Amino acid sequence: MCGIIGIASKEEEVAHDLYCGLYALQHRGKESAGIVTFDGKRYYSRLGKGEIALVFRNGGALSKLKGETGIGHNRYGTAGKNNSANIQPIRGVWKGKEFWVAHNGNLINTEKLRKECIRKGFQFQNTSDTGVIAALISLSSAPSFEKAVKGVLSKLRGAYSLLILFGSKIIAAKDPLGIRPLCLGKGDKFFVLASETCALSHLGADFVKELNPGEVLVVDRSGVKEVKRGRTNKKKFCIFEFIYFLRPDSIMFGRRVKNVQKNMGRYLARECPAKQADIAVYIPDSGKYGGLGFIEESGLKNGEEAILRTHLVSRTFIEPIQRLRNRGVELKFVVINEEVKGKKIVIIDDSIVRGTTQKRLINLFKKAGAKEIHSRIFSPPYCYPCYYGIDTYRVKKELIAQRKKRNTKEIAKELGAKSVCYLGLNSLIKAVIETPGEPLKKEDFCTACFSGNYPIPPETPG
Prior knowledge:
By secondary structure, this protein is of the alpha+beta class. 30% of the residues lie in helices and 26% in strands. It is globular and about 70 Å long.
């Protein structure tokens, strides 16, 4: 999962706005970050490992990125190693002309396409699927760059939201099923493309539209040109985006994400009541809005003051030392003993994937003296790996719901909880659809991680 942003301005340099946009999208990826700009004559780039504050910590870094057009990327690696060669945007050269690619998603036919490029003599410096996209464009003999991109898109299978910087133009493209988000916004003197609307808010831009599945746009300082009309009658948007990735203040399909999550929590309270609990505690920040919906529907006392999230502890601080990585939950959360001692507690969170975090959270509450701990999750059991932009295909044998064959008693036993209960898939879909917004139907979502029904049959993951 990654965050991407592109800005084309009529008169302002865009580096600082790209930085602000990446800051808004930092939750989508913290492995690395990069910005590339174009001033009409040449490209300027800065790429590095870590969060954007680390990559651009040099006060003069942004001032060196000249130009009124540019793209940026936050990386959460799902394909390729976490090394410098895979930091995006990734550079390519088509007929002697430079271009840069930023990608959110994951291709499932990467290795097949990589071998095709190697047979044609291309020498790879990177190992990511984004690098393969850049290579395919570089090798294209199409008469125009736009036609080269369109020809390459027809070869890609999987999930992609793309921004390609080619001189003063940004080409935006979305896969035919629209699995990952990508929206268009407009400011007074600029156009912006971003993974989420929260980035538009930081830039003072108005939302124009969410790109349709299969849509291709060209954006420059003069406006927006449609290269390929997207399909509106078929989509498979990742429903896990609403649960886990989209920022609560973002809007998707006319729905404020936090309102969708509250509705999930209401459904969870109906399906998985915890009447025996003294208080309900949502896990900050992941379980906040679903937890508020659960508390509202159940009538249980809000125990939000029982746990504190220490926001000063970042991934940048934790990663360098293995012992700190192993204690990530303990560094991030503090349970207030006097709020939980001797009480029966229900904790609400968005999801359980491997179970590592949930187990450590439950242990924290036990150490603080909780009498009983019940776990309520406002998503279904995560049983199947994702091949479209979440790296759970790498840990598929570690998925706790799959290992325990959805047996909640066995899951609760491993986690150390008195009980565990998940929101059902049908209720999850209803919670999204029934939140006011654009008309949606259950067929509009990819639910593969919960149901095993893959909209694009997996091949070799990229």
